[in-house]
Design brief:
The protein is α/β, with parallel strands linked by helices. It has eight helices and 13 strands. α2 (29-44) runs parallel beside α3, α2 runs antiparallel to α4 and α4 (98-111) crosses α8. The longest helix is centred in the N-terminal third of the chain and has 16 residues, at 29-44.
Length: 338
């Protein structure tokens, strides 16, 4: 039998590890080997011996919708991660165990990249009275492509807000910004504002713009050029709006803002990064991603990741390369042209 197994055995309640780009951000071959050994054990448990993984395409253009499935833009790193995957020891079969869940948490911690930390706002102080939680990704468990059966996942993942509630100090109030809550008004009552942002990317869905997109339920007049994520109207748990404008609006209240980017590729940040105090990039952190984010926010562990891809200042500065020789492409006549 054969199956997908990009960052976990893609069946039922198999353990879901961080997305491939997050595993690459660990820059840790021994840990990668342990993760892949766990995946192999859970595949063997359901008699799967052939998988469509790893993805060894080199992610040289951040607009590529499948960048999250890769190990980044560096050829050597990709080779080392891929070898760790295919050389994983074939141990005894096992179905989802505490050891694998602990490993998923360890990998999620090691994958988180600290992009900015102005004036040491992180880790968050233990004496904070009110923490505000904002953004469309605050209460979702986005695992990325090829996560569980048919791209979904059968387990109970930890969302960012669930992780924060579990790790916050006793007496700290967690205020969550809902669909009908004015973000700026809520931010003024908070000691710190945590904003969980996301993007739209997947197989068959490349991006032409690397900015944070708007979130909307409206379909009329929305085209690819509008740079928006359209969500179903019945999804009342997802806050709609302009993410970049909302980040600036919250920052203008004077509350320190920590932006957490749940994404699998590069994001242009020039429009808002100077207004915020800190930025974390946990990628799609797997089933334990929300816990790992909270642990980093509150200083229980250090963010262990490093970027495996370049973050351009503007989409127009995206580096496009065709290997080491002259660029070659198909012309309309079917002949190669350089």
């Amino acid at each position: 039998m054969r199956e997908e197994a990009l960052h976990g055995a893609q069946w039922g309640d198999a353990t879901c590890f961080p997305q491939a780009i997050g595993l690459a951000a660990m820059w840790d071959e021994p840990l990668m080997s342990r993760v892949c050994t766990a995946i192999a054990r859970e595949l063997k448990a359901v008699n799967i011996h052939h998988v469509f993984a790893p993805v060894i395409n080199i992610s040289r253009d951040s607009r590529w919708g499948r960048a999250q499935e890769s190990y980044g833009e560096d050829v050597y790193l990709t080779c080392r991660m891929a070898l760790a995957y295919v050389d994983a020891p074939q141990a005894d079969a096992v179905v989802r165990c505490p050891e694998h869940q602990s490993l998923a948490l360890e990998a999620a911690r090691k994958a988180i990249v600290l992009l900015k930390n102005q004036d040491g706002v992180l880790p968050l102080r233990q004496d904070l009275k009110v923490i505000g939680v904002f953004g469309p990704a605050k209460d979702t468990v986005n695992l990325g492509d090829y996560s569980g059966p048919y791209g979904g996942w059968g387990g109970d993942g930890i969302s960012p807000v669930a992780g924060i509630r579990a790790k916050a100090a006793p007496g700290t109030e967690i205020r969550v910004c809902g669909q009908r809550t004015a973000a700026a008004e809520l931010a003024r009552s908070c000691d710190v504002a945590l904003y969980f942002a996301t993007i739209c990317e997947e197989e068959g869905s490349d991006r032409s713009n690397l900015d944070l997109p708007r979130i909307t339920t409206q379909t009329e007049g929305v085209t690819a050029a509008a740079h928006a994520i359209i969500v179903e109207k019945r999804r009342q748990d997802i806050v709609t709006g302009d993410q970049e404008a909302e980040i600036r609006e919250i920052a203008a209240t004077g509350a320190p803002v920590v932006v957490v980017l749940l994404a699998g590729s590069a994001i242009t940040v020039a429009a808002w990064i100077d207004a915020v105090a800190a930025v974390l990039l946990p990628w799609y952190g797997g089933e334990q991603g929300g816990t790992a984010i909270a642990e980093v926010l509150f200083g229980e562990c250090n963010p262990g990741g490093r970027l495996p891809i370049t973050f351009p200042k503007h989409v127009g500065r995206t580096i496009w390369r065709c290997g080491t020789g002259p660029c070659v492409a198909w012309s309309k006549t079917g002949r190669l042209r350089s």
